[in-house]
Design brief:
The protein has 340 residues and is α+β, with helices and mostly antiparallel strands. Helices cover 35% and strands 18% of the residues. It has twelve helices and 13 strands. The strands form four sheets. Strands 1, 2, 3, 8, 9, 10 and 13 form a seven-stranded antiparallel β-sheet that branches. Strand 2 and strand 3 form a beta hairpin. Helix 1 packs parallel to helix 5 and helix 2 crosses helix 8. It is globular, with a radius of gyration of 20 Å.
Length: 340
């Protein structure tokens, strides 16, 4: 896949609208209990895909198209490496991140820009407060408001603008679906997932967003996690594993999961997405249908246990208890619906 340097931009065209798709047949994945009674249920779909393409566990409709949201970031980072991005490993992990907005995260995004002669003015992402609760409180106490650097996707956007400089592509308009950068990103995601995008939209930060199935995303994460460190896929995976605090942040479950299980690759996404890759090439993709963030980890941990991942290392990732009067009276637990 080659993309020669080109200073021209295609004529502006609107991104294809998402096609009308049938409602996925999701099933109960997580139950919320209170004193033995199931109080709430989170529905969704999942698949754990082995390296040989066979399913190790699945539920719901894992072949239904959905928007992977920020779980696409490691795949986008692979595309940026293909286009010549060459930055330190901690900054490559930040490129794949939905970071909490700590000083280290903000400084990292700024450093990517400086390395390529750019400033925050080059960024096209939306403005926001830091994503992490502690980080947001500290930011507001200092009298700050929403900025592009504080927004959780600033590492990815900084690296996208850097790649434009490297290739002589226009920085302005780098989020356009027909910009050479985004064409390369789409081709790379198609290659890694093994399927064409079912629809195209725009993510919250402004980047083109491609719809794929959980099946395809699980395949992609298995490929990343098993890739040799000399490859672009392996470089992204290695950076994320080495610097999990850059991929999310202190106190975030994705960072904790990668620290708990050596070799495991993990990335979350808005609207209830959790992706995991294991060194043997197994990929796991989970989608909570109502977008409930609290339901991602209970079902992910259960599937990992069923896959033989060390249960002891996963015990620290249990969800906080359901409280009544300040005392534990219930729990979030995986529903017993998985097929093997």
């Amino acid at each position: 896949m080659t993309h020669p340097k080109d200073n021209t931009m295609p004529a502006a065209t609107a991104a294809p609208a998402a096609q009308s798709l049938k409602t996925p047949q999701h099933v109960p994945l997580v139950e919320v209990t209170r004193d033995g009674l199931v109080e709430s249920i989170h529905y969704g779909s999942l698949i754990a895909l082995k390296a040989d393409g066979t399913s190790a566990s699945q539920a719901g409709e894992p072949d239904a198209p959905m928007y992977p949201r920020s779980s696409l970031k490691p795949l986008q980072a692979v595309a940026l490496l293909k286009a010549g991005l060459d930055i330190p490993q901690d900054l490559l992990a930040l490129t794949s991140a939905s970071h909490s907005g700590s000083k280290r995260h903000r400084d990292g995004a700024t450093e990517i820009l400086k390395l390529h002669g750019l400033t925050e003015a080059a960024l096209g992402n939306s403005t926001d407060l830091p994503y992490g609760v502690k980080e947001r409180e500290e930011w507001l106490r200092a009298g700050n408001g929403p900025t592009q650097i504080a927004q959780n996707c600033s590492g990815k956007h900084a690296s996208m603008t850097a790649v434009c400089v490297i290739n002589g592509w226009p920085v302005e308009g780098y989020l356009h679906p027909e910009h050479p950068l985004q064409v390369l990103v789409r081709e790379t995601i198609t290659e890694l997932t093994g399927e064409d995008a079912a629809a195209v939209s725009t993510d919250g930060c402004g980047t083109p967003l491609f719809a794929h199935s959980l099946h395809g995303m699980a395949r992609a994460y298995g490929r990343l996690a098993a890739a040799d460190e000399s490859t672009d896929e392996g470089k992204v995976a290695y950076a994320m594993r080495r610097f999990p605090e850059m991929v999310a942040g202190e106190g975030r479950d994705v960072t904790a999961l990668m620290r708990a299980v050596p070799g495991l690759l993990a990335k979350d996404g808005f609207e209830g997405l959790q992706l995991v890759g294991l060194p043997d090439g197994t990929g796991l993709a989970v989608k909570i249908s109502d977008g409930g963030d609290r339901a991602r980890m209970p079902v992910t941990v259960e599937v990992l246990r069923r896959l033989g991942v060390d249960g002891g290392s996963l015990d620290t990732l249990q969800s906080p208890p359901v409280l009544g009067g300040g005392l534990p009276v219930g729990e979030l637990r995986a529903a017993q619906i998985f097929s093997n």
